[in-house]
């Protein structure tokens, strides 16, 4: 009986060791990340002589690196190519660091990724089209960087996305038509960019939308009345754009700046209210 107990303990111990051990490729990817981002200057450093599972911010499950949380840890420099070998990641949080360079096209290696937060850094360049291949992505936060270029045309392929926060960047161009194909969106924050063009009436597809912020861009045309059909929408700011025409009192009250727009001379104006639209919306089913 004693022998059996000993064997059982040895088995459990060996299983724990196995679960704690990641592949050489994943370990090497983490080490490359450490050195490429000036690990010796991190607020909380890694002891590379210890097991990977002991390293700060690294979550290991069944011998795989599944999460990385190094937020506000003074990472500096660019993400190395090997970083994208961490193909089992479901959650990446690197916000509030000093990361530079562009997001790699190899980001499509992260097939299991659900959360990507690289906000409040110095990331530049355009968002790679390959990010649209991350079918499990629910939360994409890249705000307060130096991201430029246009939004990926196929962004609508992210049909599980709930949060898209890209504000305070230099993104330009029109909203891709495909974006209206994401019915799961709850938070859409695109304010303080250089976006232009019209809002489509297909915005009505955003059934789950709770927070919409597009202020301080160059959107134009009329504000689609379909916005009032979004019954979950509780926060909105469309001001500081070039929208024209009339707007209902309902929408004006929902907008935190009461629909303050720029005219052709960049003077601030208020959109006119149309009381009739309030009545129409109330009587609709």
What does this structure look like?
This protein has 285 residues and is α/β, with parallel strands linked by helices. Helix content is 16%, strand content 23%. The chain contains 4 helices and 21 strands. The chain has helices at 2-20, 24-36, 249-254, 275-283, and strands at 58-61, 64-69, 76-78, 91-93, 98-100, 115-117, 124-125, 139-141, 146-147, 163-165, 172-174, 187-189, 194-197, 211-213, 218-222, 235-237, 242-244, 246-247, 260-262, 268-270, 272-273. Strands 1-2-4-6-8-10-12-14-16 form a 9-stranded mixed beta sheet, with no helix packed on it. Strand 19 (260-262) and strand 20 form a beta hairpin. Mean pLDDT is 90; it is low at 3-19 and 277-285.
Tell me, rounded to a whole number, the average pLDDT.
90
Q: Which CATH class applies here? A: Alpha Beta
Question: Helix and strand string, N-terminal first?
Answer: HHEEEEEEEEEEEEEEEEEEHEEEH
Number of domains: 1
Strand content: 15-25%
Give the count of helical stretches. 4
Helix/strand structural class? alpha/beta
Largest sheet: 9 strands, mixed
Helix content: 10-25%
Q: Tally of extended strands?
A: 21
What is the architecture at the second tier of CATH? Alpha-Beta Horseshoe
Could you name the CATH homologous superfamily? Answer: Ribonuclease Inhibitor
| Shape verdict | elongated
Poorly predicted sequence stretches spanning 5 or more consecutive residues: 3-19, 277-285
- By CATH, the topology is Leucine-rich repeat, LRR (right-handed beta-alpha superhelix)
Strand line-up of the largest beta sheet: 1-2-4-6-8-10-12-14-16
State the end-to-end distance. 73 Å
